[in-house]
Amino acid sequence: LQESESENRLDGETASDSESKSEFGGSSPVPTSDDTPEVLNRALSNLSSRWKNWWVRGILTLAMITFFFIIIYLGPMVLMTIVMCVQIKCFHEIITIGYNVYHSYDLPWFRTLSWYFLLCVNYFFYGETVTDYFFTLVQREEPLRILSKYHRFISFALYLTGFCMFVLSLVKKHYRLQFYMFGWTHVTLLIVVTQSHLIIHNLFEGMIWFIVPISCVICNDIMAYMFGFFFGRTPLIKLSPKKTWEGFIGGFFSTVLFGLLLSYVMSGYRCFTCPVEFNNDTNSFTVDCEPSELFQLQEYNIPLVLQSVVGWKTVRMYPFQIHSIALSTFASLIGPFGGFFASGFKRAFKIKDFANTIPGHGGIMDRFDCQYLMATFVNVYIASFIRGPNPSKLIQQFLTLRPDQQLHIFNTLKAHLVDRGILGSLEEA
Question: Where is the composition biased (Basic and acidic residues) (predicted)?
Fold first, then answer.
């Protein structure tokens, strides 16, 4: 009984060990030293800490926006590579927090298994993406065709290997702690890897579905900070004491207006509106197509209430601009809750930022906490209101069937078209 009580006591301390260690002299999981470049420190030495932080954040924000424009110019492959790098860095920051909190217990294989599970999940998701979007390429290459055919079985076998390794790593008196960390790893994978996979899916629908949502989140973050910095008086939420209602409301209206303007500019360019497809002849990505109705100017009647205010009866705009209102509204009203969630997470572990990667901003995860939530919404929005069956993908799959299966589908489709009177009218024409 005494041994059992002792084991429960040691095992049970995991429920609050991060807090107790921080409260009783434990070190912070992530260092909080000043990481501002020395050049900026000297240039801004005469300013107060408030204005110094404003200038540091502003300069680094402009640098990140410039980098964002550069990777957009470099094309979809570079964008996908950057998404992968951001995913790995975010995973590293979150896993490092868990390791630094619990490293004193010397748990075996924690980081090794965490990275192994990251590899397994990425293999599964990116394998599904390759099979879906590069179907003809996969069918053309024998090794890829075999991997595609047994992809899910291989993925499951890889995961089972990691699962068995975890069971073998269990240490007496730390079972509960190890299962906490097992759950920590899987929740991190769910938040980071799944969302980054959705971002890439959005990118394949057209770069505009990637750029506009991300830009709306960036705009909302910047404008909420600006309005809060200059006009903020009323606290918004206890999890983030610096957030104010003035910043929240100002960010909302600024983001909606920004989304409308950005959508209008980008909707006129095929390189942004066309789906990203793989050209089998050139073995490269192409973004050239006939723009869909979403990206063709149409005339809309202005409500009578607003006609007397603006002086117009009709307005010409792209249908995508209407969708951009939904995207920008989510980015400004619901998107910040991703940041609040991250703030609660950091408060639970008594840390200021996830890392010190970007001076004045914290870690990569500090900048992408809202982006991941936005990615899920965009993917769900496209699937619910935008995307229809893709004829080219259906034809690709049709061509891989056996001849008897192709004939069966052909005869079924022919009979269906004849019954509807479509095939007869086409033959007469």
Answer: 1-22
CB 281 within 8 A of CB 223: no
Q: Which of 77, 286, 107 is nearest to 182 (CA)?
A: 107
At 285, phi and psi to the nearest 5? -80, 145
Tokens 């107060």 identify what position? Answer: 48
Task: Using pLDDT thresholds of 50, 70 and 90, give the confidence band for residue 22.
Answer: very low
**What SS3 state is found at 37?**
coil
Task: State how far the Cα of 172 lies from the Cα of 21, in Å rounded to an integer.
Answer: 22
Query: What's the rounded Cα separation, in Å, for the pair 395 and 240?
Result: 51
The secondary structure of the chain in percent helix, strand, coil, rounded to multiples of 5, reads 75, 5, 20
CB-CB contact of 299 with 316 (8 Å):
yes
- Beta strands 298-301 and 284-286 are unpaired
Query: What mean pLDDT value characterizes the chain?
Result: 81
Q: Using CA of residue 325, residue 328, residue 332, residue 334, what is the dihedral sign?
A: positive
- Burial of 272-299, coded b for 16+ CB within 10 Å and e otherwise, reads bbbbbbbeeeeeeeebeeebeebbeeee
Mean pLDDT of 56-79: 83
Give Cα 205 distance to the centre of its chain. 15
Q: What is the DSSP string of 64-88?
A: HHHHHHHHHHH-HHHHHHHHHHHHH
- Read off the pLDDT of residues 236-275 as tens digits, 9 standing for 90 and up: 888 888 889 999 999 999 999 999 999 999 999 988 998 8
The interaxial angle of helices 207-231 and 175-204, nearest 10 deg, is: 110
The one-letter amino acid at 169: S
The distance in angstroms from the start CA to the end CA of the chain is 90
How far is CA 172 from each of CA 1, 8, 168, 334, rounded to the nearest angstrom?
16, 11, 11, 43
Q: How far apart are CA 322 and CA 313, in angstroms?
A: 18
